[in-house]
Structures are given as structure tokens and as C-alpha cells.
Design brief:
four-stranded antiparallel sheet; two-stranded antiparallel sheet; Arylsulfatase, C-terminal domain
């Protein structure tokens, strides 16, 4: 079973307007819910940005990230496909 088969989209909240931020996405991985992924419109098209928090130093840090490039690609494919279907 691939990682994508265990991943499910819990919720997609699309945003209106001209912002580079297009949607917030929550995913389910088995019994774990990950909230706050973002679909962004960048220079090379849409991409998935991981949840993050701002540290005391003012910099932003990812709180969740894929362990491998393959998992990142599968996650991106799944999330963007679900976004485009809505």
C-alpha cells in the first residue's frame, strides 16, 4: 500500500480573491489528522505548503514535513487533484 492510499483529504477550504493563498487543507493519515496545509500559487504554479509556526526569532518553521521526496510528491499529487476536483 502506498503512502497516498493511506492519506485522505479531510477538508478543503478554498479562498476567494487574488491572494497567492488558494486553500487550506486538512488531511488524515490513518488515525492522525494534520491541519493547516496550504495550497499556494507560486511562480511555477500551484504547490502544497506544510503547516508551520512562527518562532520567537520571527522565522517560520514547518511543524509537519514528509520524510522522503516520494511521500512529498504523492501528498502534493493527492492534495492538488482533490483541490482541482472541487
Amino acid at each position: 500500500m502506498s503512502q497516498a492510499e493511506r492519506l485522505q483529504i479531510s477538508r478543503i477550504y478554498k479562498l476567494e480573491g487574488e491572494s497567492k493563498l488558494k486553500a487550506f487543507v486538512d488531511i488524515s493519515l490513518g488515525g492522525l489528522i494534520v491541519k493547516g496545509l496550504r495550497i499556494m500559487d507560486g511562480q511555477n504554479g500551484l504547490f502544497v505548503s506544510m503547516p508551520r509556526h512562527q518562532g520567537k526569532d520571527g522565522r517560520w518553521y514547518n511543524t509537519v514535513y514528509p520524510a522522503t521526496k516520494e511521500i512529498q510528491q504523492e501528498l502534493t499529487h493527492l492534495v492538488l487533484a482533490a483541490y482541482r476536483e472541487q
